[in-house]
């Protein structure tokens, strides 16, 4: 992994966040637009054609039967089911604390104002297929939606020649997913956004996917809500000279193995640690099953930045705004106020990033590519909408009528003013 040195300004220039991976690529945008148009026009038939073309699977019935889901669950080991149940307990207990109740305000005589929170009616969860199965993502997305009160959670996942991974089906069952459909790619996003004969339209689409899925989510946004445009995984680690280089390297590789475009980053005030971590990366990569993917990530996307002090390390990470941020220093919680931009923070040398991926409870669907500057992790609030309400008595309206008509006429909206005055004529 390349090691960067220099003063803070020089390092800031070198590590400045790369372009968002889901940024427009004309050929992808055009291909996705064609897919969406085809699904809108031809519904299930378009989905069947794409399943044959892209997945090599002939799909006659998109909906996965309850018997198939139950069989998948039954085929999983007790060890896996116990792990999923632990994750469910911790994810639920964490996200239950996010629930808001709205409010009502009647402090002014004759005036009632308030806000009610209403759960979305239906949400769609995209679960990637291919080389890796992600039952943990199902738990992270579906459980907060359930807590929010969503009545219909629909899951889509690419069809597989040997059938959908049993762990995915088990997670869907435990998380309370209401229906599972075997369809993937941009065509699945289009189906969720507009509906087909078999797949219902939803109000919001969530979940990670490749560039075609991310581009499709971007193109249907406005017809439906989406969680975020997610890019490849990132991990940023701030570590001092007392950190264990083997552990730091292992944590960097925990994200590098996701994708050749994943971005592992270490910022340290110790040149000795930087050198030792590099040696460990070479050693550990040699035995990693996903060595090819992780090596490309480490060599092409990753870096180690050596700074003068830990304050500069935190300033640099705030510029990067990483998806995951580990703080491997003594008394890490004392640095929490220095963190302004990060998706999820892991405090201390024991809090390895996979802890958050699976069982700790905070969500692992996180902003990437620098969007932690303005996006937040997925949570209960993502599955509710706010509805405002107002009630005025005639007396209360009379007190404020003149101010309303003055503002309306200032904006050239005579009809607004007359609507208020009609109450007093």
From TrEMBL:
Q: Catalytic site residues?
A: 323 (proton acceptor), 324 (proton acceptor)
- What cofactor is needed? Zn(2+)
| SUPFAM superfamilies per record | ALDH-like
The record ties this protein, via Gene3D superfamilies, to: 1.20.5.1300, Nitrogenase molybdenum iron protein domain
The residues that hold NAD(+) are: 126, 187, 210
Metabolic or biological pathway, per its Swiss-Prot or TrEMBL entry: Amino-acid biosynthesis; L-histidine biosynthesis; L-histidine from 5-phospho-alpha-D-ribose 1-diphosphate: step 9/9
Task: State where substrate binds.
Answer: 233, 255, 258, 324, 357, 411, 416
Q: Which CDD domains does the record associate with it?
A: Histidinol_dh
Q: Tell me which EC number(s) this protein carries.
A: 1.1.1.23
What's one GO MF term for it? Answer: histidinol dehydrogenase activity
What's the record's note on cofactor binding?
Binds 1 zinc ion per subunit.
Q: Which PROSITE patterns match?
A: HISOL_DEHYDROGENASE
Q: Which residues form a coiled coil?
A: none
Q: Name one Pfam family in it.
A: Histidinol_dh
Q: From the UniProt record, list the reaction(s) this protein catalyses.
A: L-histidinol + 2 NAD(+) + H2O = L-histidine + 2 NADH + 3 H(+)
Residues recorded as binding Zn(2+), renumbered to this chain, are: 255, 258, 357, 416
Family listed: Belongs to the histidinol dehydrogenase family.
Q: What does this protein do?
A: Catalyzes the sequential NAD-dependent oxidations of L-histidinol to L-histidinaldehyde and then to L-histidine.
Return the HAMAP family for the record. Answer: HisD
Question: What name does UniProt use for this protein?
Answer: Histidinol dehydrogenase
Q: Which organism is it from?
A: Lacticaseibacillus baoqingensis
């Amino acid at each position: 992994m390349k090691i960067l040195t220099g003063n803070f300004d020089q390092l800031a220039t070198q590590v400045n966040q790369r372009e968002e991976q889901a940024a427009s690529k004309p050929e992808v945008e055009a291909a996705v637009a064609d897919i969406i148009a085809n699904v809108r026009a031809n519904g299930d038939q378009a989905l069947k054609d794409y399943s044959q073309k892209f997945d090599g699977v002939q799909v006659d019935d998109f909906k996965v039967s309850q018997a198939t889901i139950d069989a998948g669950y039954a085929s999983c080991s007790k060890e896996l089911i116990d792990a999923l149940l632990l994750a469910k307990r911790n994810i639920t207990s964490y996200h239950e604390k996010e629930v808001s109740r709205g409010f009502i305000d009647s402090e002014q005589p004759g005036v009632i104002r308030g806000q009610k929170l209403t759960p979305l009616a239906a949400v769609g969860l995209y679960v990637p297929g291919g080389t890796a199965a992600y039952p943990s993502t199902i738990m992270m997305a579906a459980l907060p939606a359930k807590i929010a009160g969503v009545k219909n959670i629909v899951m889509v996942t690419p069809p597989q020649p040997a059938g959908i991974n049993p762990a995915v089906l088990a997670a869907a069952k435990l998380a309370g997913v209401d229906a599972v459909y075997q369809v993937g790619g941009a065509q699945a996003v289009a189906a969720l956004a507009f509906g087909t004969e078999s797949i219902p339209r939803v109000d919001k689409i969530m979940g990670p996917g490749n560039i075609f899925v991310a581009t499709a989510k971007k193109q249907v946004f406005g017809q439906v809500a989406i969680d975020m445009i997610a890019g490849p995984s990132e991990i940023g680690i701030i570590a001092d000279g007392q950190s264990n280089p083997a552990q730091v390297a292992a944590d960097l590789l925990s994200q590098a193995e996701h994708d050749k475009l994943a971005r592992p980053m270490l910022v340290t005030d110790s040149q000795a640690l930087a050198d030792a971590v590099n040696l460990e990366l070479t050693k550990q990569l040699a035995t990693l099953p996903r060595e090819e993917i992780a090596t490309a990530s480490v060599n092409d996307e990753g870096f180690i930045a050596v700074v003068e002090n830990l304050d500069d390390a935190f300033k640099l990470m705030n510029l990067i705004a990483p998806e995951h941020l580990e703080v491997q220093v003594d008394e890490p919680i004392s640095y929490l106020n220095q963190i302004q931009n990060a998706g999820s923070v892991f405090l201390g040398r024991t809090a390895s990033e996979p802890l958050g991926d699976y069982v700790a409870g905070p969500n692992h669907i996180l902003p990437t590519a620098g969007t932690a500057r303005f996006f937040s992790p997925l949570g209960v609030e993502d599955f509710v909408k706010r509805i405002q309400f107002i009630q005025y008595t005639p007396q209360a309206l009379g007190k404020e009528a003149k101010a309303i008509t003055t503002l309306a006429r200032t904006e050239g909206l005579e009809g607004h003013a007359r609507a208020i005055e009609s109450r007093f004529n």
